[in-house]
Specification:
Length: about 200
């Protein structure tokens, strides 16, 4: 019998395994208290930042705040989609969730199609538009063929919220605050009307 190891790095990319393994997280007893995008005031925490500073050098205490503790059951793609119970990633072994009918490919086009299943469509930029919710897709690589690395979601305040891999959820002032060596830059913006479920 071949031993198979699946490793998830701190920022959430799968190390591929030669064998298909399916796993559903047990989230039945998990408190929902922390998992509200953009918590503020008394619900914020002063816990230490656990992500490597050199991976996100422009993210500072003055432009961000932690809104929930580290968790490995969901990632930035799920968080931007409004989920906190499963990991979204188009890995070829179907370990991560990916919307049915969307090609499992680490391309900007596949990520846009995945978010399109939730009603998002391309938009010009990340400027705040009252009544709309926006997602910024980040990527690394040559212009036009960037490999997606991260997704951030804009809050009604104009701030952005990100799940940093297996690290904390944060609110950051500008979308560019999470740009850098780990995530690259924002390469695409998506928008949909903000409804009661996305507030």
């Amino acid at each position: 019998m071949q031993k198979v190891t699946i490793q998830i790095s701190g920022f959430g990319r799968f190390m591929l395994s030669p064998k298909k393994i399916r796993s559903e997280p047990n989230t039945a007893g998990i408190s929902r208290k922390w998992h509200v995008r953009g918590l503020s005031g008394e619900n914020e925490t002063d816990m230490a930042r656990s992500w490597p500073q050199d991976a996100l050098p422009t993210l500072t205490e003055s432009n961000s705040r932690i809104t929930s503790p580290s968790a490995n059951r969901y990632n930035c793609l799920a968080w931007a989609a409004g989920e906190d119970t499963r990991w979204w990633w188009p890995d070829p072994f179907e370990i991560g969730y990916w919307p049915p009918g969307i090609k499992r490919s680490e391309t900007k086009e596949a990520f846009v199609r995945a978010y399109r299943t939730l009603g998002f469509h391309h938009c010009d930029d990340g400027a705040l538009e009252p009544g709309n919710e926006k997602i910024a897709l980040f990527g690394k690589g040559p212009h036009g063929s960037e490999r997606p690395t991260h997704a951030a979601c804009q809050l009604e305040s104009g701030e952005w919220t990100s799940k940093l891999g297996t690290f904390e959820d944060i609110v950051h002032s500008r979308v560019e605050d999470v740009a850098g060596p780990e995530y690259g830059r924002a390469v695409c913006y998506l928008s949909r009307p903000r409804g009661p479920q996305t507030a």
